[in-house]
Amino acid sequence: MVLAGRSKAQMFEGIKVAFDKKELPALESGAMCFMMSKQSYLSDRDPHWHPHLMFFVPLMDPAAWGTGLPGSPVILGVEDAPDRMTVFWIPVAKWSDGTAAP
Question: φ and ψ at 88, to 5 degrees?
């Protein structure tokens, strides 16, 4: 879509239509990624964050995973309605090189 010169709004609409027509599969539970490199780049303001795991699940209330509750390892959960998923962040104690995270 980018190479075709579509705007961001047109791309989001195209993806929404594809989901609605079942041309794209629904997200399966269990998708995750490791974000544990000290060389990661988040933004100019926050070059990198804590090492963490990210879990991607079908759209749900983040409270279902105990997001933000005392003692819960899940510190952040965000509903991403346009992408029809919820993303959870769980910090871990070490970077990928084995050194302790701050």
Answer: -115, 140
**Over its length of 102 residues, how does the chain's per-residue pLDDT go in tens digits?**
889 999 999 998 998 899 889 898 877 777 899 989 888 877 787 777 789 999 999 889 999 999 989 999 999 999 998 788 999 999 999 999 999 987
Residue closest to 90 by CA, chosen among 48, 29, 32: 32
Structure tokens belonging to residue 101: 């995270």
Q: What is the identity of the amino acid at 25?
A: P
Residues in the chain: 102
What six digits make up the tokens of 16? Answer: 């929404």
Domain assignments of the chain as residue spans, ordered by start: 27-91
